[in-house]
Amino acid sequence: MATRKAAAKPTSQTASRPNVSAEDLLHYYREMLLSRRFEEKSGQMYGMGLIGGFCHLYIGQEAVVVGLEAAAEEGDKRITSYRDHGHMLACGMDPKGIMAELTGREGGFSKGKGGSMHMFSKERHFYGGHGIVGAQVPLGAGLAFADKYLGNGRVTFTYFGDGAANQGQVYETYNMAELWMLPVIFVIENNQYAMGTSVKRSTMSPSLWQRGAAYGIEGEEVDGMDVLAVKAAGERAVAHARGGKGPYILEVKTYRYRGHSMSDPAKYRTREEVQKMRDERDPIEQVRQMLLTGSHATEDDLKAIDREIKEIVNEAAEFSKESPEPSLDELWTDIYA
Amino acid sequence: MAIEILMPALSPTMEEGTLAKWLVKEGDTVKSGDILAEIETDKATMEFEAVDEGVIGEILVPEGTEGVKVNTAIATLLAEGEEKGAAPAKPAEAKAEAPGQATPAPAAPATAAPKAEPKTDLTPDWPEGTETKTMTVREALREAMAEEMRRDETVFLMGEEVGEYQGAYKVSQGLLDEFGAKRVIDTPITEHGFTGIAVGAAFGGLRPILEFMTFNFALQAMDQIINSAAKTLYMSGGQMGAPMVFRGPNGAAARVGAQHSQDFAAWYMQVPGLKVVMPWSAADAKGLLKTAIRDDNPVIFLENEIMYGRSFDVPVMEDFTIPFGKAKVERAGSDVTLVSFGIGMSYAMEAAGKLAEDGIEAEVINLRSLRPMDTATILESVKKTNRCVTVEEGWPQGSVGSYISSVIMQEAFDYLDAPVITLTGKDVPMPYAANLEKLALVTTDEVIEAVRKVTYR
Fold first, then answer.
1. Distance from the A334 Cα atom to the nearest Cα atom in chain B, whole angstroms
2. Tens of pLDDT, residues B180-204
3. A271: Cβ contacts below 8 Å, ≥ 6 apart
4. Is B117 a member of any domain?
5. Residues B356 and B310 occupy one common structural domain
6. The complex's ipTM?
7. Are residues B46 and B160 in the same domain?
8. Which of A82, A159, B128, B311 has the most crowded Cβ, counting Cβ within 10 A?
9. Does A220 reside within a domain?
């Protein structure tokens, strides 16, 4: 599977905030926009019946993965739940292969056998794509266990949501991760709703990152709508984990604009609540404003980026429709190594 | 009247032990709670306390004696004023420090199992003329792990009490000393979590051996075994899988009740993506475990606590492995095919021996691996004998035998002269009471009876 070309390394001087170059800002803008447009297209294609089963969109949460990927080094690993399209795009997996997996075609990352929730890329160190809420948490610690065992200096970003944060295996994992000083960063993407149940209705001690204190794990809360804040926190977490100090927890406060899955009637929150977030906190709009007010880009520059992204997404969609369904022999392959 | 102090049973499956050391001598006054002796089993050395007060009359079994049967009188205890040599009265109650072992265990537990393995007509898994040595299943498992850990740095052992405690059942004894804490890792009691970590480590390039203290506890980790370990290779289109071994004792031990006595063979055997094996002999244990560790897939390796202490011949070879998917005909015969695996083989072999005395020659097939399953060997045998009895400890509905029976029906129906009988454990949770437990398990007598039914003799 092809890999997208990594963005140019930041070189120039600071933009609207210290230590952020215009190139960096443009890179984040581009990456977040790609995720947004990709997901919008996914929703559209789901509506057309081209994507089946469960499909969980990442719209609204883009700053989380884009900010953290900016803090990662080549070779670092990531693992997440079923809301995984954004993570895959952000770590450099080809949008064509992702979309073709969503349509269940041969050109998909799992040859059409995994689907939206179960996708992997060994080449990009993306370990899934897991459909059982919370299961990826010990798996992620296990990846970190392997890295520590092999002494290769890598860290693993283990993403899970506020819903998974109530699974017992998360705390079993916290205990062992700290006990064994595993180089793992637990990223709680707190989008405030576990399917339809708000954090308030499901969770005592609503500060999720502080639960790590019971195991001696350091962590912090992060504004997940602000990509620069996420990146800065990610760098602290990475320094901690890579520095041999064990696990670190980032509770990233974010928000998903769309339903839990495509079949979510969204009766548990008001339209106004969603609209307010979109209007006031949108992560892409924030970067866009920084770029414009800092005179790092013109409206025309940004329009050009928009067109470019749209093109990438359209190509991915076309590819995913043209790629044939897997051959019938594929039913019987990849069961055993 | 003097009372006898008896050799205590210190574990559910202990039948005999070594009287390692006396801490009292004849003439010593002892009171309840004093340590009398150190008793060594194949699993542990334990202190043995007095329960009554009195004076040690006579030491009947000197220290250093091996193979002292449970309930053998090892000393006498005199009441005040009594003299050595007084007639023994009722036995003193033995008390060990092991929790839940406060009463003297009548050696009942293991009585369901035959005392000695019948001689087998081996078609060996090793070249003719190879030197063999006798070892227990426990030693064979340990040797397999040690050899593979020496061979491959990415192999490590993880589980509860595998390290400093030297293994809850002493299978991993000595491995911590040889390989260190990096590769022999004690976990907290947290099956769901550490199973997920081990699967993740396998994704990340290592080859974990995950020991469950017993497979009953793996129920807590079922999601990680099935959804994460077994399916990831398929879901990733072949990009990544979990090369690892899940091992530990499975099935009934002895008198440990419903939650600790269950055979999971049929459960795991159902799952594509898993390989499932169950050794019977020590040679099986060694050869199959080495193959399991080298396999690039998740392997469920089902051991049996009662079998750990049993001895068999194992070849002395540089690199002895047994391939998966290859059953072994342990005994040739023409009248009926007995198919079994794991401890069920002990009943099948014992039954075959007894049936031979009556002129009924049973062919006994040791399946060894349940997935992949060597149905070809079963079918070949059934086509010769025209009759089949399967023997296993698990429950009847959806049993391993049910599957074998369906294969025979579909592939060798015309060869059958009698319906296939699938012998299993009874369809009940395992009871604690000794007599009921015996009734719940499959027995040699039931095998004999089933064979008589299908052979009409």
1. 5
2. 999 999 999 999 999 999 999 999 9
3. none
4. no
5. no
6. 0.91
7. no
8. A159
9. yes
Smallest Cβ–Cβ distance between A337 and the set B182, B197, B241 belongs to B241
User: Is residue A16 a part of any domain in this protein?
Assistant: no
Short-list A196, A190, A247, CA closest to A221: A190
Residue B305 annotated as catalytic: no
Whether residue B192 lies in the annotated active site: no
Contact list in B for residue A129 (CB cut-off 8 A) is 235
Catalytic residue, from B4, B139, B147, B191: name it.
B191
Inspect the interface and report whether the beta carbons of A129 and B235 lie closer than 8 Å.
yes
> pLDDT tens digits, residue range B390-442?
999 999 999 999 999 999 999 999 999 999 999 999 999 999 999 999 999 99
Q: Which helix (H) or strand (E) holds B277?
A: strand B275-277
- Residue B32, pLDDT score: 84
Average pLDDT taken over every residue of chain B: 91
Tell me, yes or no, whether B173 and B258 share the same domain. Answer: yes
- Binary contact (A142, B198; C-beta < 8 A): yes
pLDDT (tens digit per residue) in B8-44: 888 777 888 899 999 999 999 998 888 899 998 877 7
B338 and B395 in a single domain? The answer is: yes
CA-based nearest residue in chain B for residue A149: B182
Nearest CA distance, B218 vs chain A (angstrom): 14
Section B69-73 average pLDDT: 90
Nearest CA in chain B to A122: B239
For residue A111, what is the nearest residue in chain B, using CA coordinates? B237
Closest CA to B171 of B301, B10, B323: B301
Domain that holds residue B80: 3-106
pTM: 0.88
Q: Are residues B54 and B144 both part of a single domain?
A: no
Q: Is residue A313 part of a domain?
A: no
Q: Which of A137, A138, A337 sits opposite B297 (nearest CB)?
A: A337
- Burial (CB < 10 A; 0-12, 13-18, 19+), residue B404, is buried
* B72 belongs to a structural domain: yes
Q: Is B239 within 8 Å of A168 when comparing Cβ atoms? A: no
Cβ separation A108–B237 shorter than 8 A: yes
Residues B144 and B268 in one domain: yes
Residues B228, A135 contacting (CB under 8 angstroms): yes
Counting the structural domains of chain A, the total is 1
State the amino acid at position A125 in one-letter form: H
Same domain? For B293 and B184 the reply is yes
Can you give the pLDDT at residue A2?
45
**pLDDT above 80: residue A321:** yes
Cβ pair A141:B202 closer than 8 A: no
Q: How far is CA B389 from the centre of its chain?
A: 22
Q: How far is CA A328 from the centre of its chain?
A: 32
How is chain A split among helix, strand and coil, in percent rounded to 5?
45, 10, 40
d(CA A177, CA B158): 14
**Which amino acid, A327?**
S
Kindly name the residue from B4, B15, B143, B260 that is annotated as catalytic: B260
CATH no. for residue A126?
3.40.50.970
**Of B182, B187, B233, Cβ closest to residue A334:** B233
List the alpha helices (DSSP H) in B263-359. 265-269, 282-294, 305-308, 344-357
Residues on chain B touching A183 (C-beta within 8 angstroms): none
> In Å, how far is B402's CA from the nearest CA of chain A?
24
Single-letter residue type at A84: D
CB contact under 8 A, A113 and B233: no
Rama region for A190: left / alpha / beta (φ>0; ψ in -120 to 50; rest): beta
Residues B138, B285 share a domain? yes
pLDDT tens, B152-180? Answer: 999 999 999 999 999 999 999 999 999 99
Domain total in chain B: 3
pLDDT recorded at residue B52: 82
Contact B182 A149 (CB under 8 A): yes
A200 inside domain: yes
Q: What CATH number did the domain enclosing B93 receive?
A: 2.40.50.100
DSSP B262: B
Contact between A114 and B236 using a beta-carbon 8 Å cutoff: yes
